[in-house]
Amino acid sequence: MKINILAFGIAKDIFEASAVKVEMTNDATVSNLKYLLEKQYPRLKKLATYMVAVNNEYALDGDTVHERDEIAIIPPVSGG
Amino acid sequence: MKINILAFGIAKDIFEASAVKVEMTNDATVSNLKYLLEKQYPRLKKLATYMVAVNNEYALDGDTVHERDEIAIIPPVSGG
Amino acid sequence: MNTNIQILPITLNAQECIGWVMSPECGGIDIFIGTVRNATKGKAILRLEFEAYEKMAISELEKIAQQAFEKWPAQRILIHHRTGVLQIGEIPVIIAVAAAHRDAAFEACRYIIDTLKQTVPIWKKEIFEDGEVWVAAHP
Amino acid sequence: MNTNIQILPITLNAQECIGWVMSPECGGIDIFIGTVRNATKGKAILRLEFEAYEKMAISELEKIAQQAFEKWPAQRILIHHRTGVLQIGEIPVIIAVAAAHRDAAFEACRYIIDTLKQTVPIWKKEIFEDGEVWVAAHP
Hints:
By secondary structure, chain A is of the alpha+beta class. Chain A has 2 helices and 5 strands; from the N terminus they run E-H-E-H-E-E-E. Chain A has a 5-stranded mixed beta sheet with strand order 2-1-5-3-4. Chain C is elongated, with a radius of gyration of 15 Å. Chains in contact: A-D, B-C, C-D. Strand 2 of chain C pairs antiparallel with strand 2 of chain D, so a sheet runs across the interface.
């Protein structure tokens, strides 16, 4: 399945786009997704930390992702 | 000497005036002043507590009062 | 001047207070606004009346502001307090503290309102349907 | 509705925010206003840029407001956050909490800004003379 990934803040700079598509198997987890993204965009690994949101909720590494999920890369936040 | 005493809040109600005059000796203290006032206005004694200000500063019982001092009775405050 | 302390017989203006404390060196402003509640201890209030020993109140408020500056790295402190008759919803007090960082703003603002209520010669009378009372005057 | 949570691309209005939280049941309002400082760690800033993952930011802010209501007896909570380019002195965030008593207002307001800075997907870019940086992105 092809997963669409939204990017914000520095992640947008790293991807050079506000969204990227990643090809994954159906049983893929957040952890698998991070691995693939970090392989393709090594600068992502250099962030202090980053989170993945699935359908507007912070996701855990073990959560599985589905084709229609809204996935987003959440670099360290700095609002306020 | 005749001392002029300003009254605020409930003290004004007790004195039925916003200022009263008290005749005192020259070496009188805040404590003496309170004694005289409480004798003349017994309701003053029923306050939870009250302070005396001399020249816009809270005064101690032992402080002496002088003829030209600005003296005020400060019942429990409730601003804010 | 880094303090703006006033006892006023007219409506307090929050927007002006905020405008006064803002500055390019500040990252955070904490503002406390007291408002007249419609009830106290379950009893309906009609209105409040505030009286101040004005000269001494200003002097005590200046002391509190200076203490706050000594305790926290605040940049500007504003304290405005009303006198006179206030209806439900009106504003007896506005305290605004601007600081480079929010810690100082929050803590100084809290300190100022807490201390004001303990030491500043201002008195509040609550007016009910069936009478009126000077707050805190009796045990 | 006892919450008013918005992500806005236009100037935040403190007076309107205060007006929204005020109510006859409330005796105290605490307001935190963030402002754009002219420097960070001693380095002059030209302007800031805020970006939000809007839908999730609103959802996270709603969670924080609900947590605050569970922890403190607050009556109304407002959180407005800016996006876009902000000049020095402009306001990125306004948080206003109204409560019957000031304890709840102060504590809930402080909790909200502290938690917002930790969990809400909003990002700040600092623009300097000689470059720009997404805040907190690097160790």
